[in-house]
Amino acid sequence: MEINATILVSTISFIIFIFIMNSILYKPVLQIMEKRQKYIDDNKNEADEHRKKAQDLLKDRDEKVSDAQRKSRDIVASKADALKEEKTKILNDTKQNAQEYFAQQKESLASQKETTSQNMTGDVADLANRLTTKLMGEGVAFTPLEQQEISEVMKKNA
Prior knowledge:
Elements: H1 5-136, H2 147-157
Helix pairs in contact: 1-2
């Protein structure tokens, strides 16, 4: 095979064409592609930073919300306990007042019963003596009932 000038000229012109294309077309296109890749990488990094900040903010918000919920549960629980204690105190005071009132009323009724019993003892003795006199007659002698006997009979029948 013979090397002639046409092949040599074609080879040289191809090499020159490659250098020209490289300086005119390929280098600017490569620079544009590198700039574009750098722009994409920068935006990706910035987006990653923003996502991380957003996650940190969400985590912080969740912690604050859970802390606020815990505090509100504690406040509600303490208020409920305070109300329960106040309710218990009021109920105990009311119960004690009612017991005191009933004790006073019992004492009052016992006193009234005793007073009434003493008042009735004399009346019953007088009535019993009158009935005995009427039933037996006025001329019949009998021993009038004593206060103690009447008291015993009234206690048995009370």
